Amino acid sequence: MNAVYKLSPSDLTFLWDECKRCFYLKIVRNFNRPPVAFPSIFTRIDGLMKEFFYQLPSEEISPLLPPGNVAYANKWVNSEIISFTHRNTGCFIRGIFDTVLAFSDGSYAVIDFKTTQPKKEHIAFYSRQLHAYAYALEHPKGDSFSLKPISTLGLLCVEPVTMNRSQENNLALQGEVSWLEVPKDESEFLIFLDGVLSVLDSEVPPAKNPDCGFCNYRENARETGY
Ligand code: SF4
Fold first, then answer.
1. Domains of the chain and any CATH numbers
2. Fewest CB atoms within 10 A around its CB: which of 110, 118, 145, 169?
């Protein structure tokens, strides 16, 4: 095999959608775009949600889910190499999942907590990330962490809507909670990964995103010499 690319589940959402060139440069040339400031409050809220739901029954996530409980959080997954007969390159998935539920029928659900308004578009957008975790769990490399079968994928969206004073010096930000189930389709995910490899296998990086401020800044700097 000529090359085996490491894919991070989160890069299959924002980075892939924002700019194939930056995606290519990161994975093939190990040239990373500078990190943008990510408000730490979202990391804090995400951590609090994980702590709150850990070991609670699955009905706390959604009454539509089968009986079970929130069983795992923040674990590394590492997939076997994914290859296609028509390519001489491959890829593998490596990342940390948010949360996994264990159902009493022996199957599992991979879910992600999002501090956001629930939107239909989130289903297709985050589907790749959830499928990547599910694929790595069901097709692990060696003795990497493994769970199967993964029967369910979904997003638990919390949208802050009101603030209440629960006691003196203590305000509670309250939000509406919505469950968005993401249909699982491993074949479609593999077709998507084949498309990702077709970009990564190219001799030259794809075109830049013309709306990106980073690249425009780089070009201006080159032109002006600043
Ligand atoms: S346009 Fe340039 S800086 Fe912006 S995302 Fe693409 S390659 Fe990266």
1. 3-224 (3.90.320)
2. 169
Residue 207 Cα to ligand 1 middle (Å):
9
Among the residue ranges 61-70, 111-120, 137-146, the one predicted with the least confidence is 111-120
One-letter amino acid for residue 24 of the chain: Y
Q: Tell me the CA distances in angstroms from 50 to 73, 113, 121, 132, 191, one per residue in order.
A: 7, 8, 23, 20, 32
Region 98-120 average pLDDT = 95
CB of 70 within 8 A of CB of 56?
yes
Angle at 213 between CA 211 and CA 216, to 5 degrees: 90
Dihedral angle over CA of 157, 159, 164, 166, nearest 10: 20
> In angstroms, what is the C-alpha Rg of the chain?
20
Q: What is the mean pLDDT of residues 5-11?
A: 97
Mutate to test the pocket of ligand 1, among 212, 217, 219, 220 (most ligand atoms within 8 A of CB): 212
Task: Give residue 21 CA to ligand 1 midpoint distance, Å.
Answer: 6
Kindly tell me if the per-residue pLDDT of 211 is higher than 90. Answer: no
CA distance linking residue 83 with residue 105, whole number of Å:
31
The model's pTM: 0.93
